[in-house]
Specification:
Strand content: 5-15%
Family: Belongs to the 'phage' integrase family.
GO molecular function: DNA binding
CATH topology of the largest domain: DNA polymerase, domain 1
Number of helices: 9
Keywords: DNA integration, DNA-binding
Number of domains: 2
Shape: elongated
Largest sheet: 4 strands, antiparallel
Number of strands: 4
Structural class: alpha+beta
CATH architecture of the largest domain: Orthogonal Bundle
InterPro entries: DNA_brk_join_enz, Integrase_DNA-bd_sf, Integrase_DNA_bind_dom, Integrase_recombinase_N, Phage_int_M, Phage_Integrase
Pfam families: Arm-DNA-bind_3 (PF13356), Phage_int_M (PF22022)
CATH class of the largest domain: Mainly Alpha
Order of helices and strands: HEEEEHHHHHHHH
Radius of gyration: 31 Å
Strand order of the largest sheet: 1-2-3-4
């Protein structure tokens, strides 16, 4: 077993050499003087090598901790290098989705998509109300983690102080006109359920394109019916 004093005292030589700590963990001392932690393992008939960092950035105790984690994986026939890579990728995807699906991010997309045509005073009021009363509580939360009940509780709190503001916020979220709804670009979970309340609802920017398509389709259907009715009457 190595000691910190031994590691600090190890001098560079013409060729790289190893200082074993046990269980496949060793310190590789390079001719340049760098000291690198390595874990040599075997799964089945295949050998593998894992880099665990450099000394002194990674201390002896830290190297042993990481080595112990990797040995547990090897005992389960799991390749520690591939598993660590998988975990990093999963974490990166999680952060990416968390950022893209954050309440404040969806709000920014919706705000940009619906600001066209609004009067300056109306837009300022909407921005002020959402910024002051929704973003402080919900801004950093992933949309998928927010329940409709939570939003309702926030609105109730606002209503006690400013009923008119609470009414405006409800209209932004669940107003009568679908194209103007903030909720058109988001999906709230039901409490105690992993299923979304409105599966398949498009994001804010897509909502308006979908609305236009439905309008054109409805107009075409009405035109067809009108022409068919005229032919039936012989007009």
């Amino acid at each position: 077993m190595l000691t910190t004093l031994q590691i600090k005292s190890a001098k560079a030589q013409e060729r790289a050499y190893k200082l074993a700590d046990g269980g496949g963990l060793y310190l590789l001392v390079q001719p340049s003087g760098s000291k690198l932690w390595r874990y040599k393992f075997r799964i089945g008939h295949v050998e593998g090598l894992q880099a665990l960092g450099a000394f002194p950035e990674v201390s002896l105790a830290e190297a042993r901790t990481e080595h112990a984690k990797s040995r547990k994986l090897v005992d389960q026939s799991v390749h520690p290098v591939q598993e660590r890579k998988r975990q990093r990728e999963a974490l990166a995807i999680e952060y990416l989705h968390r950022d893209k699906g954050a309440f404040e991010t969806v709000y920014a997309q919706w705000d940009a998509a619906t600001a066209v045509g609004l009067k300056s005073g109306t837009l300022k009021q909407r921005t002020r109300e959402i910024t002051n009363d929704l973003l402080p509580t919900l801004g950093g939360r992933p949309i998928a983690s927010i329940t409709r009940l939570e939003v309702t509780e926030v609105l109730k709190t606002v209503e006690k102080r400013a009923p008119e503001v609470a009414r405006n916020l409800r209209n932004y979220l669940w107003g009568r006109r679908r194209k103007d709804r903030f909720a058109c670009g988001m999906t709230f979970r039901r409490a105690r359920s992993k299923r979304p309340t409105c599966p398949g609802i498009p994001r804010a920017g897509e909502c308006f394109a979908a609305t236009g398509q439905r309008r054109r389709r409805s107009a075409a259907i009405r035109g067809f019916r009108r022409g068919y009715s005229c032919r039936r009457r012989g007009v």
